[in-house]
Design a protein that fits this description.
The complex is a heterodimer of chains A (116) and B (112). Chain A has strands spanning 5-7, 10-13, 19-24, 31-37, 44-50, 53-56, 65-68, 75-79, 88-95, 106-107, 111-115. Chain A is an all-beta fold and 116 residues long. Chain A has no helices and eleven strands. Chain B contains no helices and eleven strands. In chain B, strands 2, 4, 5, 9, 10 and 11 form a six-stranded mixed sheet that branches. A five-stranded antiparallel sheet of chain B has the order 1-3-8-7-6, with no helix packed on it. Chain B starts with a strand and ends with a strand. The chains are: A mainly beta (116), B mainly beta (112). Chains A and B meet through strand 4, strand 5, strand 9 and strand 10 of A and strand 4, strand 5, strand 9 and strand 10 of B.
């Protein structure tokens, strides 16, 4: 596609529910990143995929957070037993190469998650 | 560990002014630095990417500079317009994976 897309754009969940957030990266982009952005803050790194391999999950805040990219394209971020502190915007980004250090990242519109 | 700071958190200027947004980083072994724009309720739009070998990068009315030795980058906006109102974020990659470390952002308001 022309850019990174994410769905849903908005999600309201009751505390304790499981949610799944989807990211479609730019076609052909090897690297995929998930970030979490709290209100009024800059995004914070959650996890990184190179193709289907999850090479860095150091930013996932707890074992309730799980991400996958089984075919090296679409990625899903799953949050189990949601808590109010999970309320944030979840951003997905992709870049074209395998080495991330000199690559420009392109972001999707984000999914705004509200946990009641 | 890379840390990125942006000051001020908010800025309000009259239309037509030239302005500078500041970004500081702690690890001078930086590969590049990226500036983004974020409109309310939207994702991030990449504005400029400066490689470590470059000192500045220009796109239209925007000019970004990078000084590794002092740990600073600036985003210069010429002849500001109300449409420039947004939050501007800078970010630097950390580790081999290139995960970005972001500043807190500067929210700019350009008044007509």
């Amino acid at each position: 596609g022309a850019g990174v897309s994410q769905s849903p754009r908005y999600k309201v969940a009751k505390r304790g529910q499981d949610v799944a957030l989807r990211c479609d990266p730019i076609s052909g982009h090897v690297s995929l990143f998930w970030y979490q952005q709290a209100l009024g803050q800059g995004p914070e790194f959650l996890t990184y995929f190179q193709n289907e391999a999850q090479l860095d999950k150091s930013g996932l805040p707890s074992d309730r957070f799980f991400a996958e990219r089984p075919e090296g394209s679409v990625s899903t971020l799953k949050i189990q037993r949601t808590q109010q502190e999970d309320s944030a915007v979840y951003l997905c980004a992709s870049s074209i190469r395998t080495s991330g250090r000199n690559n420009e990242q392109f972001f999707g519109p984000g999914t705004r998650l509200t946990v009641l | 560990k890379q840390e990125v700071t942006q000051i001020p958190a908010a800025l309000s200027v009259p239309e037509g002014e030239n302005l500078v947004l500041n970004c500081s980083f702690t690890d001078s072994a930086i590969y590049n630095l990226q500036w983004f724009r974020q409109d309310p309720g939207k994702g991030l739009t990449s504005l400029l990417l400066i490689q470590s070998s470059q000192r500045e990068q220009t796109s239209g009315r925007l000019n970004a500079s990078l000084d590794k030795s002092s740990g600073r980058s600036t985003l210069y906006i010429a002849a500001s317009q109300p449409g420039d109102s947004a939050t501007y974020l800078c970010a630097a990659p950390s580790s081999n994976t290139g995960k970005l470390i972001f500043g807190q952002g500067t929210t700019l308001q350009v008044k007509p």
